[in-house]
Amino acid sequence: MRFVVLVKQVPDTTEVEVDEETGTIIREGVPSTLNAFDEFALNVAVDIKEQKEEEVEIVALSMGPPQAEEALNKCLAIGADRAILLTDRAFAGADTWATAVTLSRALKKIGNVDLIFAGQEASDGNTAQVGPEVAAHRGLPQLTYVSEIEKLDPGEGNIVCKKETDEGHVRIKSDIPVVLACMPDPGFEPKIPNVREIMKAKKKPKEQWGIEDLGGKEDDFGLEGSESVVIETYSPPPKGEGIKIEEEPEKSVDELLKFLDEEGIL
Amino acid sequence: MARTNLSDDRELTEEQKLFKESISDWAERNLSLERVIEMNREGHPFPEDIIEGLAELGVIMGPVPEEHGGMGLTWKDQVVIADQIGYIDPSIATAAGFMAVETGWGFTLNRYCSEEVREKYVKPSIKGKKFVGIATTEPKGGSDVAGFESTAEKDGDEWVLNGEKTFISGVEECRKMGGGYWVNVRTGPQVEGAPHKNMTSFFVPIDADGMKLQEPYDDAGRSSLSTSGFIMEDVRIPEEYMLGEKGKGFYHTMEGFDLARIMIGASAVGVTRRVLEEAADYIKERETFGNPLAKYEGIQFPFVERYTEMEASKLMVRKVADMADTRYDEEGWVKRTGKAQTYKPTEIAKWISMIKYKIPHLAKDTADDAMHWLGAAGYSSEYIFETAWRGVMSYCVGAEGGANIQKIVIGRETLGKDYVPYK
Q: How many CB pairs under 8 A join A and B?
C-alpha cells in the first residue's frame, strides 16, 4: 500500500507579521516548523503502517521553498519512508487552488496511492481548503475532521474513520483511495523522533520536483494559476482583558449571574 | 510578549536541528523548569522516567559506534545535544550531569573495555538500564595523583582491589540501576617524580563483593544527581575487567576526562542561554521608575556582555568538538570527519581545559547576575537562577576537574613545561 501525507512548513510563531503591500505573511527571519495538524496526520499514517502486516510506503509530500526540506526531514525522522518537495519559482504565490493543482499533479505522478492524508488546516492560512480541493482535483472522496482511523480494509477497499462534528463525532465508512483531512483530539502528543531515527532519516530518499517534473503550463501554478486575490490582510483588534471570577463554584455562579444582569444580557 | 529566544541554529546540520527540537519537545512533556527546581529541592529522587527518557531519545553515549550499540555520532553532534540538555536542565544534575558522565566516560569505557564489560554494562547503559561512572578521587588524592593510595594485586586470574573513592557522582543512581565504575588503582610502586605511572584502570561493578557504599553527601546544589563514595575491601575483579593496558590507566583516564569536560562545557553554554532567556523575559516586562529593567544600562550592558561571552563559548566548544573528532579519525578507531588534521592530544587537552575552566564559570556568573537583576524574585526558587547557580557551581569547584587544574594545563601548553607549578 502507499500512503501520501501532504505537509506544510509554517512559521513557528504566534506573532505573524504581514507584508502590507502584498498581503502575504513575512517568512524571512521567522523560525519555521511542521504544521501541527499535518504532523498529526503523519502520526496517524505511521501508526497504521506499524499495525499493518502488508508493506506500506509512506511518502511525505510538500510544496514550498527549498527550506521546506526541513519539515520533510522531520517527517522522515517521524516515520515517512520517502520525501518529495515540490519547489519551483513558478509555484510561488499559490493560493489554495493552485496549491491543490500542484499537489494533485504530484500525486498523479507518484501513482498507486491508497490513502492521502492532510492536516485539517495549516496554522498560517487556516483555510482548511487544500485537502478537500486535492480530493476534487483527483476525483476522490474526502473525509474531513478525521481524528481516528478505526479500520482499514484494503481487501474490501474501504476505511472506517472517526470524524469530529460540532455535536460529537460520527463513524463513517468510505471507499479507498480517499483524502483524509485530519484533526487531532485535544491533548494529542505527537511522536518525538529520537537520535537514532533522525540519523536513519538522513539515509532515506529525498527528491525535489519542479514544473518540468509535473508537466503543464506555467500559468497553471503559483500566483498565475491562483483564482483568488488577497485584497487586505489585517489582524483583528485584540479582545479586551475580560473578567475572571475566581470564587467557589456556588459563589461564582452568583457573581456571574449578577454580572450578566448588570450588563443587561439576561 | 513572545518568549525570548537566543538560539541561532543556522549553522547546524539538519540532523542537529532535529536533535534540538526533539530534546525540547521531550522536555516540554517531561522536564519543565518547575520539575528541575522541584527535583533539586527534593534531593536524590532517582527520576527513573527522566533517565529512561534520555536513553529513549538516544542522547546518552551518542558517539559510541553503531556496532557497539551507540549512534555513531560525531562529537560535533554530541555537543549540540549536550548544549540543549544543559538548556533544559540548568541545574546540570539529572539530565545534563547524567548525560555528561555517561557520555564522556561511557565512550571511553567502551574504547578500552572487554567484550564482556561492553555487553554487560556499556550496552545496557546506552539504553538507560544501567549506570557507568568514574571514580578517581580519593581522600588524599584527586587532581594530585601522587596522593592515590588504592591498589590492585594480582591473585591467580583475578585482581584484588583495596582503597577508598570519595566525592563520586551517581553512586546512588548506580546502586539502584546496577552498573559500576571506572576505578584507578596502583598496580606497582609509586615512581618518584612520575606518580601517574603504574596506575591501572579497572571496571568495578557496584555490586561486587567487598564494595561498601557510603551515604550521599548533602551538596549545595545539583541535588538530583547524588554524590558519595565507596570503600573497596578485597574486591576481586577478573582480568578482563582491566581497562586498556596495565600501567596506562592515567592516560586512558585523561581521555575520559577530556570527553566529559567537553560535555560539561557544552552543557554550560546551554545553561547560560537558558538563564539569559529566562532573565530577559523578566527584565523586558518588569518596570521600575517608569521603564522596563532592560532599558537601564546597569542591566542591559552586563546582559549583552554575558550573551557575547556565551556566543564566544559556543564557538570554542564547536572547535574543541571538531578537534575531538579528528583525534579519533587519526587513531583510525572510528571514522568521523574524514579530515586529516593533526592535533596533539596535549593541544586538544589545552582547548578542553579552556572550555572547562571558562564556561561553567560563565554559567554560574550569569545566574549570579540574573539574581541581581531580578532582586528578591531571582533569589527565590520560583525562578531557575538559584538552582542553576548552585548546580553549575559543582563544575566550577571540582566535578570533572577543578578550575585551577585546568589553568595549570593551559599554562603548561602555552608557557611551557618548565613553568608547571606542581609536578
A: 49
